[in-house]
Amino acid sequence: MIPVSQPFLPPKDEYDHMIAKLWDSKWLTNNGEFVKELEKELKRYLGLSSLHFVSNGTIALQLAIKALEIKNEIITTPFSFVATTTSILWENCQPVFVDIDPHTLCMDPNRIEDAITSNTTAILATHVYGIPCDVEKIEKIAKKYNLKVIYDAAHAFGVQYKGRSLLSYGDLSTLSFHATKLFHTVEGGAVINNGNCNWDQSIKLLRSFGFENEEYIMAGINGKNSEFHAAMGLCNLRYVDEQIKRRKDLTELYHELLGEHFKRPSIPMDTIYNYSYYPIILKNEDELLKIQYRLKKQKIETRRYFYPSLNRLPYVIRNATCPISEDISQKILCLPLYSQLEMEDVKKITDIMMKKEAVSTI
């Protein structure tokens, strides 16, 4: 079987060496040595001044909304993983969906102003597949209307835009370190603060029950992560550059073998990409299902990532129409891509896809 993604694992002896230290110290959680070291090393690697390691990417989003004291309406994208929307709902805010750019698949900034009301307090956009949003236009709109900006950067680890980390744009950015991500800690995530230094203290308090020493300061939650997860992160960080290079080679082979038969999202100029996913856009849903079935018969997994368009979730009250997102979500498919994937596997996948009756005609 060829899975659509597969977690990278470091050499077992390297992780065992880290775990042996935990056995000796008995300090397993509560901001121990490895958590502090991981935060330091991630800031160094990513070129950031602030990063808070948390239990997962969804908690990271919720902490970001809470730390900025965002209320009421948040303008967001319908084309993202469901956690982007549900984090807004869990914080008792209202998602207001803005359709996407048909090329990058990120939120279309030219539609944002029409969605702003007197109740709008923030913009929560996603760097889809690690592709940068139009951060300049979003920043300009946010300043004009005094809105906070959060970027769901779950896919954007290591991505740079115009010479700086993509995570450094906006007020806060969030990461996911789930096992399927380019960089992972098995489960985990992070909140990146690019603004007010007071937000650092708020994030630290909010992720740890809202107390410091013996003083209870605010209503927090348990968003901490353990020393075991941090140890995995420290081991994996040593191999990130190798993984990106390998994913780049696999991506270029996909490009070569698939040619122009299948459309792909556009990556803006001045972007240093991380090759997190390999999405293709098909002619329609029927063609997608045909190719997906053809690959599945050969034990090759794919994923309809993202489907459905989030504005169509049954528990969202205001189901705004987003025709581009709704259309794209029905015909986009992610092919297998991970560092352990073999070149021969890519050739097998593309051979199956390129059979005459499976070829796209867009």
TrEMBL record:
InterPro entries: DegT/StrS_aminotransferase, PyrdxlP-dep_Trfase, PyrdxlP-dep_Trfase_major. Keywords: Pyridoxal phosphate. The keyword Cell membrane does not apply. Belongs to the DegT/DnrJ/EryC1 family. This is dTDP-4-amino-4,6-dideoxygalactose transaminase.
